[in-house]
Amino acid sequence: MKQIKLVVKNGSINGLKNRMEQFMKLIYNKREHLELLKKKKSGDISRDDCQKCLKYSALTNCRLDWCIRETYLELLEDFQKGKINTFEFCLAFENTGKLTSDIIDIFESNFIILSPDQKVLDFSNLLEEVFDLCQDYFQDLEFLDANPSSEEFEKSKIEFKNSLGKIYLKIQKFLNEE
Amino acid sequence: MTALLYYSISLDLTEDEIIEIDSQVANNREFVRNLPSNSKRKAKRVLLYATFIFQLGQPLVPYAAAVMVPLPTQISIEHLVSAEVLRSNNQCPGIAPIIKAKMDKMILTDQQVEDLNIICYKLQKGSITLDKAVLKLRAGGFYDWAALAFIIYMFSLQQGNSFQNVPLPHQDPFGWLSGKYDSRNVGNGQCLSHPASRFERETLHMAKQMCHASADENGFVMSYDEAIKLLQKTYPGSMQVTEDFRIGDWQAASHLYHGNGVGVDPESFGMSQAELDKLRGGFINYARKGYKLPSIEHVRAYQTSLKTICLDSTSIRHDDAEYYYKHGMEGTTVFQNDRYLVCFNQTTGDLITGDKQRPGTIRKFNETNQIGSQKWIDKWSKK
Asked: Is position A172 within any domain?
């Protein structure tokens, strides 16, 4: 299991925390989320409310992604160490993402709501970059399937590895600053 | 050979079906084991006779089309096994109850004969798969031996004659050199007097699966052009969703790994999600490697599921969406229902993708009306 080093900087920590809380209040309302979930379950929900509920679900999903961050980190490490190849990494990473979405569905159908905050949103944004990379890699494979080129295939893999390396560094830095 | 055939068949069956067949095979073995030695020979005769009956009864055999002998409407086991043997079986405590209770007469009713002929006809024409044919047989009240004989018979068609020592493709290098297993000689009808059916393509594909020895260093068992022809023939049609949009069979098949997300269980169609995930390496590559092609019924189920999402009255249609990828941006119409997105290319009317998305993807789409990675959005939206 990965050890996560937390560095707390003294000084303006309380002010920063307050600003984050205010920001979250602007974008997330837990009470309203619960009401929307109840409406959704009863089937009596407007399109706008449904879209709003989805938006809230995305925020709570970020919290779950944060909770299982070690799974994501292990995958990233395995890829960096060459234990898994690009295809396996992308598949496993996407499947982990889908799994968290399905877990959120189960939680929400039982009105269990996780609380998001700015920290988990930032972490989730970094994960989104990895999801984007995986999506691009699979798109490349699809394109190369119709236009085979071993050079392009190798180029795609190298690009992926370089890009993922940069994101991995950002994730490590983020976790160290937490 | 029967074991090999059984193995090949079982590749396409679900776990429950395999367990059911295994248990019935075990029962039959137990029955034969407990018979007196002369009865074993007679039991084998039942099987061979059944096979023979099915060979005669098949109306669409290419090499026997001129001689059409219908299936007998009634087959009595007493013609094959003497009454003494049957009586002695009744006294033997080791015999499986199912044999004692109902097997004194094996009857194929007129309706069953008709059903069998219809199933065989559909199989030959390619409108149902081999798996489905076997399941229909079993569901249609046919006795076990009839279904087993049918399976052996179908493979005898594939190999010419299952009761002769015909080498399997991977044991037959001269066959490969002579082009015997070349799909151009089997799949496209150039060397046959009748057009290729799906059964032929499937058996060809199955033969390919048995022939890893012939794969090249990349694991390919057929050329690029051969794979394209095979896929074009296997997935030729499309399903119309709206006046403007359709889901092509090829397109749906190549994205079938998304099926599970929209409620299409691959296990119901004899495939695992792990097998479908191999499609992500490219559909043509997938075919070239001789992996099992998804059945057209599986493809239809995925298409139907996507169509249902599109036509659902609670779905939201976004006609102003943009799909970004490596080579540019496409104007896209997206049908959204909760976390399900089905995207169509507005220019061609073809499906781009259809799946259940992560909440993060939905949130991003609802905020921007854009689909695709940020890298390509940044690159192409500025131009």
From this structure: yes
Burial class (CB in 10 A: 0-12, 13-18, 19+), B232: exposed
Distance CA A97, CA A138 (A): 16
Task: Dig out the tokens for A103 from the structure.
Answer: 């877990």
Tell me if A167 is assigned to some domain: yes
Query: Rounded to the nearest 10 degrees, how much is the dihedral formed by the CA atoms of A69, A74, A76, A80?
Result: 160
Whether the ipTM is more than 0.95: the answer is no
In DSSP terms, B107 is beta-bridged to B74
pLDDT in tens, A6-54: 444 444 556 656 666 666 667 889 999 999 999 999 988 998 999 999 9
Residues of chain A with Cβ-Cβ distance to B361 below 8 Å are: 131
Q: Which of A139, A145, A147 to mutate to test the interface with B (most CBs of B within 10 A)?
A: A145
Domain boundaries, chain B: 2-159, 169-232, 238-381
Q: In this predicted model, what pLDDT tens digit does every residue of A82-96 receive, in sequence order?
A: 999 999 999 999 999
Whether the Cβ atoms of residue B156 and residue B56 lie closer than 8 Å to each other? no
Look at domain B238-381 and name its CATH class.
Answer: alpha beta
Residue A10 lies in a domain: no
Can you give the residue range of the structural domain that contains A105?
Answer: 27-177
Nearest Cα neighbor of A125 from A59, A41, A26 is A59
Q: Is A176 exposed, middle or buried (0-12, 13-18, 19+ CB in 10 A)?
A: exposed
Q: ∠ at Cα B141 (B136, B147), nearest 5°? A: 60
B57 within 8 A of B71, measured Cβ to Cβ: yes
- Has residue A57 been placed in a domain? yes
Q: Give which of A36, A47, A54 to mutate to test B binding, by max B Cβ within 10 Å.
A: A54
Q: Which of B379, B371, B255 is nearest to B306 (CA)?
A: B255
Closest CA to B368 of B355, B356, B381: B381
Of A55, A104, A140, Cβ closest to residue B366 = A55
Look at chain A and report how many structural domains it folds into. Answer: 1
